[in-house]
Design goal:
Length: 216
């Protein structure tokens, strides 16, 4: 939801539109990265942005809505860079190259927006389906990029199987990558530099197993 229009039910007094909204998002992003979701309040965002709380509530219904907007802005920019990356000529399969680029870009850690998305989803449960759908939309876009790369990595299985398993296994590939980067934060036994390669080996084994099961 990237808009300078007021949230439903708010007065239509525009406090400097897009520039004010950007200031709020900038301040919220910095504080959420430093303090986490639970440790960041609207009052602190107001002080950091230099705007009154009333301006924040003009754009965002509550802290959940603001946090979702921070996640959307960061994730969309990150996915744009990932989608435009020229990975041709680099070693490895398409999936390994994509994961390698993503890990370099994130510093081999789970990006801040990824951590916030997990925390927000856990906080919401099933209570806010609209916000959850915003998070799911971002995941679907990421899965499409991963699925295209996985299809290329499985090209030797033939175009039909590669296309099918690229789509079917993309969410699992994303989950493997997120989980591995999260665990690497506190377990030095996980090598982020090998994570993409290991994920591809595991996914290839799953694809081959499923294909063999279907021919029996």
């Amino acid at each position: 939801m990237t808009t300078t229009e007021p949230t439903p039910g708010r007065a239509a007094t525009r406090p400097d539109g897009a520039r004010s909204r950007a200031r709020i998002l900038d301040a919220a992003e910095q504080l959420l990265a430093e303090r986490g979701y639970a440790g960041t309040g609207i009052s602190a965002i107001s002080r950091a942005s230099g705007l009154p709380a009333s301006s924040i509530y003009w754009f965002f219904q509550n802290k959940q809505d603001l946090t979702a907007a921070v996640i959307e802005r960061s994730a969309e920019a990150w996915l744009d860079d990932l989608g435009k990356a020229d990975l041709e000529g680099q070693p490895g399969s398409p999936l390994a190259r994509l994961f390698g680029f993503a890990m370099d870009k994130s510093g081999a850690t789970l990006p801040v927006f990824g951590r916030l998305a997990i925390l927000l989803a856990l906080e919401l449960g099933d209570r806010d389906p609209d916000t959850l759908e915003r998070l799911r939309k971002l995941r679907r876009r990421g899965n499409e990029l991963v699925g295209d790369a996985l299809e290329g990595a499985l090209a030797d299985l033939g175009p039909d199987l590669a296309a099918r398993f690229g789509k079917e296994l993309a969410p699992l590939a994303t989950a493997f990558a997120e989980g591995g980067l999260l665990v690497a934060q506190f377990d030095d036994g996980v090598d982020p530099n090998r994570l993409g390669e290991d994920i591809e080996v595991a996914l290839r084994a799953i694809a081959l197993h499923r294909a063999q099961q279907e021919t029996r």
